[in-house]
Fold this sequence. Notes:
The chain is mainly beta. Helix content is 7%, strand content 24%. The protein has one domain (1-13, 33-85).
Amino acid sequence: MMTRNTASITRVQSRPLASKPRQAADRSRSPVRTVTLGQMRYRGVRSIEARCEACGHEARILVDALPDELPVSDVARTLKSAASP
Length: 85
């Protein structure tokens, strides 16, 4: 069952957003384009679901304050669960 507590996973202020996004690849290691927050918002999606691998907390995160050019996969670099050590 998914907990919809946006306070359980918060953006870590001390971690800067990635200046060079990670490059996604397919099984043959060929680069693939990643979806950005701007592309996601264009389609009407304003939040993502995040899960902390350390403690298992899950939350829906509103990403309106993050830049459009940020890849969705890089949002995880800026998050940390409040319940994790």
